Amino acid sequence: MKGARFLSGAILLGLLVFPWASTSGEEAATLTLVGRVVNTQDAAVDEAKVRVFVGGEETEVAHTDADGFYVVELTLSQALIEAETVAVEISKPGFRTTRQGFARQEFACAGDHCHARAPDVVLPRVFNPAFFLATAIFMVVFGLISLNLLHETIAALVGVAAMLGMSYFMGTSNSDFWIISFHRAISFIDFDVIFLLMTMMIFMAVTSQTGIFQWLAFQTFRLARGNAFLVVAILISITGFMSTVLNDTTVMLLMAPVSIEIALVLNIHPAAIVVPEVLASNIGGAATLIGTPPNIIIGSYVGLGFNQFLVNMFPIALMSMIILLGMSRWLYRTEFDRESKPPSAALIAKLEADARITDPTLLRKSLLLFGATLVLFFVGDLFQMPPVVVTILGSTALLLWVRPDVSHMLREVDWTTLVFFMSLFMMVGGIQEVGLIQLIAESVKGIAGDSLLLATLLIVWVSAIFSAIVANIPFTAAIVPVTVFLTQTIPGAENNVLYWALALGAGLGGNATYIGSAPNIVAAGIMDRAGFRLKFEDFSRVGVPVTFVTILVPTLWILIRYFWLRF
Amino acid sequence: MGKILCATRGGEDSWRTQDEAIKLAKKRGDELIFLYVVDISFLDKIAAPMVIDAESSVEKLGAFLLAMAQERAREKGLEVQVVIREGKTREEIKAAAKELGVDTVVLGLPAEGGVFREEAIRAFAREIEVETGAEVVLV
To answer: Looking at this predicted complex, what is its ipTM?
Structure first.
């Protein structure tokens, strides 16, 4: 009896402790290896190559998926599994190749099937030639755009062509020169942004044909009865409001010429109207998701809705507009306080002739549909409708009602702008692939640490300074992923304060100089065409102080709202 | 009676040039034509949505500026003609000079100096003289 019990116990123990002991070492078993690859920020590394070695020989190759996971199935003899000869080598251009072995105790086996879940592999970055070349390409394109040396679209295409050309000419034979593949590059194109821009262009194109902007400007002149500052105040307000929902550059293209005419009739220097107007267009545009390209990029990348932008950015834009009004009155006081001679009746008649509503029916239809689209923006969250779907519905309805001709529709869309954005996204993808974005993110995190306050201040003011001197659209596209990383890693950042900080800095920073944003360049160009050359220092004399105050005060507001009162 | 062509943008940078052209026309008894060129090439390098008729907006501005120039000339006792053209400024000035058969073209030198701008304008003046046969007066 005792002996039988002992034998049963020994067999049972053997089965438990040595589950594969009942099989011979030469029998085949299926081995499933599962692992995950991350970078030093603990973000998944996709498309990493996973080479599986058994006994020093490569037996299988796999790639990580979008979440960084890989799964490999092998058929091996039990002996090989027991001998701890299984290893994986993980590699990806731009990262240091890493090898990981599997110890016997990491395998869990049942019958002829074994499974191993490897610890996450952290791939550190390497600063290879691809990193430096991609960074250099991006900086050159940045410079070409910021200094207006080349058309933005051509500059961005040059950047994309350079990155792709480098990858395929040199990177296929030497992975140290591999920046990004074409298919990978186009995966970075944010089509929400593209469609948002396209559909808003349709609204702008149709609305602008009605003459409403020029008519509003003339009515302002009539109502102000010669009071120059009142004219400026109303025009600034109209421009700012229009820019919240329509493209700010196009608003300036429409408002600047008639504003110059009004200034001449009032016998004041046109800069006293046009410069505050362009500052207002940038401020107004920062108020909503659709007001400026940086906001569209931020909102789309992060998934922020129209109402979220309105609730968080509209108060900031409103206080900045009030500051602008006050500062404009002071900075241009010699113009506004000057005694002016009565305007010429002939010139007033000419002004009125230039400012008529050219198509009342079109105006009525476009205002109705635009109003409906705005309402849909507000209620779209109830249907979980992304903002881009709202604009697609609105612009399509407008075209159906106003202009059913498809060829006309195609002409309303400015394809050079859309190609610019697509190329820009592809280039940002390139610098993301080589690790520049990650480097910037880690550097900023290194400075800010876990301090949300410091990170917020850094983002506001660094974005503002950069946006003043370089093109703010490519800057925003490059910095949004950095801001996402900081939001994910800094405690308390779940309230999205860092995104509002970026919208504030990137949006209003462009007011400081006339190269800071496209509306500024347009305004300066139209002033020049009118014989009033707006020199860099003339614009900055107003732009820099206004920018400083309109960012300083909202910064204090952000600190009060998100850090002190927390609402 | 000869013809004088004065390209102008109408603003404060051009007033001195307009005044000199008016003086010259009155002195010679020539017909004076103010020319405004709708040149929107400054938009060429911006990838902002150009979904509006930018030329039309700038053309209206140009017409307004020419109306102001006509009023200034009228105040000085001279009736002037005005012409608006669209295209690149330099090419349109030369084309207008040829088509209108002008004898003299008045160009303004930069008021604030600037060696390079002045040299560029002098070179343009020589170009006009060679291509159109018109006399160029720099003021």
So the answer is: 0.90
Residue A160 β-bridge partners: none
The chain B residue lying nearest A210, using CA atoms, is B52
Cβ distance B51 to A528 less than 8 Å, yes or no, reads no
Q: Is residue A216 one of the residues assigned to a domain?
A: yes
Q: Are residues A46 and A112 in the same domain?
A: yes
Q: Does B12 touch chain A (CB under 8 A)?
A: yes
Q: Does A348 touch chain B (CB under 8 A)?
A: no
pTM of this prediction? 0.83
Q: Is A254 close to B14, i.e. CB distance below 8 A?
A: no
- Hey, what CATH class is B3-138 in? alpha beta
Is A512 near chain B, with CB under 8 Å? no
Q: Does B42 touch chain A (CB under 8 A)?
A: yes
Query: Which of A152, A416, A533 is closest, CB to CB, to B13?
Result: A533
Four-residue CA torsion sign, A343, A345, A349, A352: positive
Which structural domain, as residue segments, surrounds residue A114? 23-122
B79 interfaces chain A, CB cutoff of 8 Å: no
Q: Is residue B48 within 8 angstroms of chain A, CB to CB?
A: yes
Measured CA to CA, the distance from residue A21 to residue A8 in angstroms comes to 16
Instruction: Count CB atoms within 10 A of the CB of residue A66.
Output: 9
How close, in Å, is residue B8 to chain A by CA atoms? 8
CB contact under 8 A, A151 and B43: no
- Measured CA to CA, the distance from residue A197 to residue B9 in angstroms comes to 34
Closest C-alpha to A243, from A183, A300, A184, A283: A283
- Per-position pLDDT tens, chain A of length 567: 445 555 555 444 444 444 444 444 567 788 899 999 999 878 899 999 999 998 888 888 999 998 999 999 988 777 777 776 788 999 998 899 999 888 777 788 888 888 888 889 999 988 999 999 999 999 999 888 888 788 889 999 999 999 999 999 999 999 899 999 999 999 999 999 999 988 888 888 888 788 888 898 889 988 888 888 999 999 999 999 999 988 888 888 888 999 999 999 888 999 999 999 999 999 999 999 999 899 999 999 999 989 999 999 999 999 999 999 999 999 999 988 877 667 778 888 888 888 888 889 988 998 899 899 999 988 988 898 998 999 999 988 988 888 656 676 666 677 888 999 999 999 999 999 999 998 998 899 999 999 999 999 999 999 999 998 888 888 999 999 999 999 999 999 999 999 999 999 999 999 998 877 888 888 988 998 898 888 888 899 999 999 999 999 999 999 999 999 988
Rounded CA separation A230/A223 (Å): 9
A529 CB near a chain B CB, below 8 Å?
A: yes
CA distance B47 to chain A (A): 5
Whether residue A170 sits in one domain with residue A43: no
Residue among B9, B45, B67 minimizing CB distance to A529? B9
Give 3-state DSSP helix, strand, coil % of chain B, rounded to 5. Answer: 50, 20, 30
Pair (A178, A118) in one structural domain:
no
Chain B residue closest in CA terms to A255: B57
Residue A368 lies in a domain: no
Which residues on B lie below 8 Å from A254 (Cβ)?
52, 57
Residue in A202, A350, A521 nearest the CB of B64: A350
- Which among A63, A76, A86, A82 has a CA at the least distance from the CA of A18? A82
Hey, which bits of A97-256 come out as E strands? 98-101, 107-110, 113-117, 121-122
Instruction: Give the span between the Cα atoms of A246 and A519, in whole angstroms.
Output: 12
User: B61, A525: Cβ pair inside 8 Å?
Assistant: no
Same domain, yes or no: A32 and A164: no
Domain count, chain A: 3
